[in-house]
Write a structure and sequence with these properties.
mainly alpha, rod-shaped, 96% helix, 91 residues, 2 helices
């Protein structure tokens, strides 16, 4: 009877431990996703501010180019965030 109790307790500790690790991975994945989205928004804002500066100077073409660069960098940051999120989920 004592052996059965010890085995049952060990099994419960293992299950609880695995669940805690899984929850930690989900948290890390959510943080990586948030960081990716934040970096994407920052890059987009940088591009927009540079575009407005160039348009204020009268360079509409360069302004459009800066805006496009900002959107491209934002997309890259978003992809990096998603990749890190998937990596965190699989760890």
């Amino acid at each position: 009877m004592r052996t059965l109790t010890i085995v049952a307790m060990a099994f419960l500790f293992v299950c609880v431990g695995i669940q805690g690790v899984a929850q930690a991975d989900e948290m890390k994945a959510a943080v990586e996703d948030m960081k990716g989205k934040t970096n994407a928004n920052i890059e987009k804002a940088k591009g927009e501010s540079k575009a407005l500066t160039e348009e204020a100077k009268g360079n509409k073409v360069k302004g459009a180019m800066e805006r496009a660069k900002g959107k491209t960098k934002a997309a890259g940051e978003r992809v990096k965030g998603e990749a890190k999120e998937l990596k965190a989920k699989t760890e």
